[in-house]
């Protein structure tokens, strides 16, 4: 029989403080009726919830760890366990109808496990009426149920909800852990560090960028910029075509700009400390001075400001590419609406 990878949350990368909190509760045999996993998106909150469910209901526990082989662990690994429920926002929000359905479900005992685990994702999206409905469940928790609420740390949550949960803080992963996770998901050794830096310690965001083929497009943009010759007019048409492709990214365009900033900063570091070691970034055919690199970083900052004001993406991308190539010396002279 093929052995599945361990599901236990202690085997997941990062979140050492959260692990300590959960392990103390397990060792004391005092698992609260509700936990609040609070932290940035994409740092493993849902995975930890599933890992905790595996430990609580594993039929062959050893030293508080899930075995990964028993029927309960296998069903959790396949995401078809009847006593592990995930409630996600519908059309951007957790709705009162979802909370009412959940309350009816919780009135029945678990199907086959000692404890049912329910994950409510992104509770910061709940409106007040849905939050008040959930509050009633938290005030009178049904037996043999554990509710795990997840939330973005930067968003406001109803204080009465927070007060009825044990809060477990989640933080961004280290660069090393993020790269390791990305490579485990098949991201190549060159793209993984770039995506890890762009995602700021959020493997979930990094994998989203990977699916959007962000690094591939970044390479094409950089190749176009570094290959500019003595006659910039000859590169006008390719730049315009590239601007169209960048604008087609829509809401993901700022992420591509983030990769371009990483590239320029790496060039700047090499320029300021040429003997610092490490892998050299892709360099332009005609060397750019520190002042020119700073000017290009300023051009990206301006483009980010314009996108935040909902300016026309295609125009923003066009002006930015000409500025990065060197065809526009002072991009702040251009007002894009």
* Assembly category: single chain
Percentage beta strand: 5-15%
Average residue pLDDT: 83
Count the domains.
2
Q: Which strand order spans the largest sheet, edge to edge or round the barrel?
A: 2-3-4-1-5
CATH fold assignment of the largest domain: Rossmann fold
User: Total helix count?
Assistant: 14
- How would you spell out the order of helices and strands? HEHHEHEHEHEHHHHHHHH
Q: So, CATH architecture of the largest domain?
A: 3-Layer(aba) Sandwich
By DSSP, the count of extended strands is 5
What gross morphology would you assign? elongated
Radius of gyration: 25 Å
CATH class of the largest domain: Alpha Beta
Low-confidence segments = 1-5, 273-280
CATH homologous superfamily of the largest domain, by name? P-loop containing nucleotide triphosphate hydrolases
Q: Whole-Å distance between the termini? A: 62 Å
Based on secondary structure, the structural category is alpha/beta
Assign a percent range to the helix content.
Answer: 40-55%
Please give the largest β-sheet. Answer: 5 strands, parallel
Can you give a write-up of this model?
This protein is an alpha/beta fold. It has two domains: 9-171, 3-Layer(aba) Sandwich (Rossmann fold), CATH 3.40.50; 212-333. It has 14 helices and five strands. It has a five-stranded parallel β-sheet, sandwiched between helices. Helix 5 links the parallel strand 3 and strand 4 (145-151). Helix 8 crosses helix 9 and helix 8 (191-199) packs across helix 12. It starts with 15 loop residues before the first helix and ends in a 12-residue tail after the last helix. The relative contact order is 0.10. Residues 1-5 and 273-280 have low confidence and may be disordered.
């Amino acid at each position: 029989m093929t052995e599945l990878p361990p599901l236990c949350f202690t085997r997941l990368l990062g979140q050492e403080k959260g692990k300590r909190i959960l392990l103390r509760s397990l060792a004391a045999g005092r698992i609260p009726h509700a936990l609040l996993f609070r932290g940035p998106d994409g740092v493993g909150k849902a995975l930890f919830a599933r890992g905790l469910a595996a430990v609580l209901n594993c039929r062959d526990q050893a030293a508080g760890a899930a075995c990964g082989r028993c029927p309960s662990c296998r069903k959790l690994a396949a995401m078809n366990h009847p006593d592990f429920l995930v409630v996600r926002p519908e059309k951007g929000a957790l709705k009162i109808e979802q909370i009412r359905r959940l309350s009816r479900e919780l009135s029945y005992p678990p199907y086959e496990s000692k404890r049912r685990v329910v994950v409510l994702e992104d509770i910061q999206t709940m409106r007040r009426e849905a939050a008040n409905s959930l509050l009633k469940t938290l005030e009178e928790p049904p037996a043999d149920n554990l509710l795990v609420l997840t939330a973005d740390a930067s968003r406001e949550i109803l204080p009465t909800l927070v007060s009825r949960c044990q809060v477990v803080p989640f933080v961004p992963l280290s660069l090393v852990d993020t790269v390791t996770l990305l490579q485990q998901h098949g991201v190549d050794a060159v793209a993984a560090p770039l995506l890890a830096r762009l995602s700021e310690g959020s493997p979930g965001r990094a994998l989203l960028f990977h699916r959007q083929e962000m690094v591939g497009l970044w390479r094409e943009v950089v190749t176009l910029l570094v290959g500019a010759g003595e006659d910039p007019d000859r590169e006008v048409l390719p730049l315009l075509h590239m601007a169209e492709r960048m604008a087609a990214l829509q809401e993901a365009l700022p992420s591509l700009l983030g990769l371009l900033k990483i590239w320029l900063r790496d060039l700047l570091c090499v320029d300021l400390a040429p003997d610092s070691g490490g892998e050299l970034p892709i360099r332009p055919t005609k060397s750019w001075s520190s002042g020119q690199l700073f000017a290009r970083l300023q051009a990206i900052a301006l483009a980010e400001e314009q996108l935040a004001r909902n300016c026309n993406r295609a125009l923003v991308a066009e002006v930015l590419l000409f500025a990065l190539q060197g065809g526009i010396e002072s991009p702040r002279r251009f007002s894009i609406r």
